[in-house]
Amino acid sequence: MRLLTQTWLLASISAGAFALLEERFISFEANTAEFAQLSITDAPILVSQDDFVGVHIAANSLAKDLEDITGIARQVTNVTGLASISSSLPSTPVIIAGSLNSSLIRDLVSQKALDVSNLIGKWESFQTATIHLPGSTSQQTALVITGSDKRGTIFGIHTLASQSGQSPYHWFADVPAQHHPALFALNKTTHHGEPSVKYRGLFINDEEPALNSWWSRRHNATRYPLNTEFYSHVFDLLLRLKANYLWPAMWKSYTPPPGNIFFTDDPLNQQLANDYGIVISTAHHEPMQRATNEWNETLTGKWDWSKNKENITRFFEEGITRAGNNESYFTIGMRGLGDEAANTANAIPMLKEVFSVQRSIFKKHFGKEDAVNQVWALYKEVASYYDAGLNPPEDITLLFPDDNQGNVYRLPSGKEEVGRKGGTGVYFHFEYVGLPRSYKWHNSNNLPKVLKELGHAYERGARQIWIMNVGDIKPMELPLQLAMDLAWNGTGITFEGLPGYLVEYAAREFGGDQAEEIGEVLMEHSRLVGMRRYEHVTLGTYSTVHYREAERVLERWEELARRVGEIKGKLEEKYHAAFFQLVGHPVLSGARFHRVAIKTALNYRFALERRNSANLLAEEVRQTFEDAYDLVEEWDAMSDGKWADMMSQAVYDAVEEPKMWANPSRDILTNLSYVQLRQHMQFSLGNLGLYAEGSDSPVQQGRWSESVDASMPTTNFAPLLPQMDPYGPATRHIDVFHRGDHRVPLSWALDELPVPWLTITPAQGVVNATHPDQRLTISIDWAAVPAEFNATLSVGIRSTPARYSYFDQIKIPVLNFFPPPTLDGFPEAGGGYISVEGPHFTPVSTGLSSVSFQNISHLGTRSQSGSLAIRPFIPARENLDRTKSQKAIAPIYLFSDAPDLTVTVYINAGLDTDPKLKMEYSLTLDDQPANFTRVLGQYVENPHAGAIPPEWMDQVADQVWTKKVRLGPVGEGRHEIVWRVNSPEVYLEKIVVDTGKGALKPSYLGPPQTARVTATEAWKGRGRGKGKGRRFGKWSGKGKGYGQGRGSWSPLDQDEED
């Protein structure tokens, strides 16, 4: 895959294709074999004088862009038609940009120099063509960008800039123009559009403490309005992303009140939006082009329709009057102030009356009730009114929200909803302030998940509006880019193509040399944040005991941070600021955040184990906490302070505080633990501690009774490793650590190993004040292990000095059973569990069905290989019986009877978007009949979140739904786990089979996938295991917690049930 990506990238870069998802029409090299070239390196720009204001704004931006790229200034000339083109213009090629109805384009069409038939009647589309100007004696040539309308033309102009080397984020992320000494237009005609989604844009929201503070600081003020200076940058960004729609900033504030008001903070804001070509709407709770902050209860009374209808109606009409003929999309309906439900017990009758009044205002001002675009946002409690039968006139757009956590709540179903005159759309969150916890510090959006949810919206026909809640805009640049690209071309990005898309994005922003590496970093960052959003991570999220889960997560973050440092060292200095904003800061701050969280959790465990290293870890956490703020100060100093305060929001928080949903107001560091370094451990236990992976032995030794707990060697709570076998992890580890007076170094050494095929490294060492821990790695040469070996090995360890002669034993259970040589599947591992990722199920097609299970690449955080879902999407929805008949199987093999087989199922999070097709799954064993069960329970009303499934509060932050299926007692041998679904919106990430023998341990991500054997492996003719075998001794124990509890060890040479 990496080689294919690299080959594709090199071809793309050499062709100069830096405009994502667009057919290229610009090159940097002349005389290519593919097309003749037209040099536009210094070409002047011609625009019709009678064209839209926005076209002129874009043309002047283009002149600046091309100067940044080539170093050559050029003029923008306004002309009234072909006849007015000055003879003083050079005979070299020119760039012409115009909409269909501009005089210049009309002249070119009338003289048959330009064919625009493909643009007639199109929405926001454009074409590029190279032509000879008619009537030119010198055969003057031109690159002509023609738009079907105002925005189509603007998009064409900005696409030329992007393909030439100017990023849409040239201002919002300080991405420098890529220098090219020459630019050439390919001698061909290209067609672009129509967009997949008609209105697409962003919502500036939750502006405190970042956006407002940043903008005010830029102007040396306590509070500075978001005026035309600010919005000109926003509008420019939107258009360069081929977006056209905005919900402006609107958050309430008490310092000073009332907060942001787009329409009055600068009275020119609305006109500027219209000039640029941006359609202005208002948030879901701000009807009729009025900001909530404009309502003054002191002057106009309560926001209560039943008691204050006259004043509220006047308020509505003033908004429509003020909007005038500016291009608008009017939000209708009425909610409570402050994003709350309306203060009424009869919401549906009230809303019917509100709709009627609002429609009468439209008729009064525009001639007809349906003369203007109107949208009703079904947000939170409003969705329940629609579900209860409140259905506005069909020309009104229905805007379906997500659940504020990235799971779309509802999508159109049935012909009536899909075919509405006003269409349907989606309101989607990239950040949020509210229950169960806010998340807005950094980009924590898993890109494949975003692709899944928005892809569903496109497939299901929600294509009228896509509005993305991006908070402060920064640092949501990447998910916003992805969403707008999908809105422009709904099928242009696939799951398997997502890594390549990120490479292309990186090449556009930072050039081609490091693009592949940066693309990989962005993809891995997306996987890591997709596990859990920053603000939702607690000290207990990742297991510090089982499956090395916390360590593995942190290792991935640390490796990502290391790669960022390497890349920065290779990038030209001009890219450093942009790289820090778009890649460096997201990764480095994320790595430090997780280092604090995970190492604080490890510090607590180490303290319970009485490790001296707990103190070192506490100091490391404290230093990382300080280092994290270094990133804030580095950000504030970047680009001469341009973005100071934008990333100053606090994120380090306590596990439990009042008002947990809200953002912390200041960073705090809590829950650090220390041991007394000068104190000896109880002498009967000794100063040398042993931690066996997954064991709670040293924690249990943290409290000790000499009269009850035997030691030297430890028998109760011995350092017992999880079972080692060929199907689980290749290595296990033991930590040897100092837990006594740190001034006294300890030497330790292992006894001779009991078998030649066991390796433990190192075999001896010293722990002291500066290096209080050593990790031992245990591995096994499975080719040398006797077949059907089933025993627990004991390895002695000794240490000096010691007040009482120190001796303990490490316990290593080893099992070397083999399934039949014909098995192609997953044998039992680790003493009693099997973990299988969804894409490693085998689809079994039934009949000649056109639908089947497919691997959905990269989607999933409990899986490294993606998810499993049924496809194609629409056919799978159209024939329920056909879809439910499809199955995928995972062959498993049990080495002994399972007393109670239970399967944990991890399903990628999503909601029931179709009330007529609620998500169901069936997981059965062998030839059992299908047993379809709803993924989610019956929805319940939450006063702050609307209707949600009962699992939502506890599991939505997990990014997966976790389900348990009990299959009961199952005999040894081969079996098949059978998976079925009723909908293409059910995505299986992973299953974990628990045989009921106590081997499966609690963890957030679940154990990594266990080994799969194939039928082609001969297994060296060693047969199969039956659940019994020769032991070197017997370990019997019981208990729970950090590991196996009380038990005893006896050196018996006998057969024993495992």
Automatic annotation (TrEMBL):
InterPro entries: GH115, GH115_C, GH115_sf, Hex-like_dom2. Residues 1021-1033 have a biased composition (Basic residues). GO terms for molecular function: hydrolase activity. It comes from Podospora australis. Pfam families: GH115_C (PF17829), Glyco_hydro_115 (PF15979). This is Gylcosyl hydrolase 115 C-terminal domain-containing protein. Residues 1036-1046 have a biased composition (Gly residues). Residues 825-1009 form the Gylcosyl hydrolase 115 C-terminal domain. Residues 1018-1058 are annotated as: Disordered. Keywords: Hydrolase, Signal. Residues 1-19 form the signal peptide.
